[in-house]
């Protein structure tokens, strides 16, 4: 059985990287259609991208702190 276009990995990567809020909504709406590990992977991508995406709405000092924490978190994983 073919997968629908909106559930394909390429589309999910793009939507989670380009527009994280829409990616979250999409993942939450279709969470029953993914395996647990697959869903957590996409959710992690959307979460990291959302943290970076939200820094543009913060003051510069807070944005640098958040980005530094993200880099430390990614480096430790």
Task: Walk me through this protein's architecture.
- This protein is mostly helical.
- It has one domain (5-76).
- It is built from 4 helices and no strands.
- Helix 1 (9-18) packs parallel to helix 3, helix 2 (20-29) runs antiparallel to helix 3 (36-54) and helix 3 runs antiparallel to helix 4 (60-76).
- 9% of the residues are buried.
- The model has no long low-confidence stretch (mean pLDDT 91).
Describe what is shown at a glance.
By secondary structure, the protein is mainly α. It contains four helices and no strands. Helix 1 (9-18) packs across helix 2, helix 2 runs antiparallel to helix 3 and helix 3 packs antiparallel against helix 4 (60-76).
Structural Rg? 14 Å
User: What is the 3D shape?
Assistant: elongated
Q: What percentage of the residues does DSSP assign to strands (E)?
A: under 5%
**Could you state the order of secondary-structure elements as H and E?**
HHHH
Low-confidence stretches: none
- The percent range for helix content is over 70%
Mean pLDDT: 91
Classification by helices and strands: mainly alpha
> What is the tally of beta strands?
0
Keywords: Membrane, Transmembrane, Transmembrane helix
Transmembrane segments: 6-27, 61-76
């Amino acid at each position: 059985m073919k997968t629908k276009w909106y559930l394909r990995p390429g589309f999910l990567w793009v939507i989670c990287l380009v527009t994280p809020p829409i990616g979250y909504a999409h993942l939450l709406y279709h969470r029953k259609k993914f395996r647990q590990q697959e869903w957590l992977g996409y959710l992690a991508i959307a979460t990291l991208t959302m943290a970076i995406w939200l820094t543009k709405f913060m003051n510069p000092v807070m944005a640098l702190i958040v980005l530094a924490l993200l880099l430390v978190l990614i480096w430790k994983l």
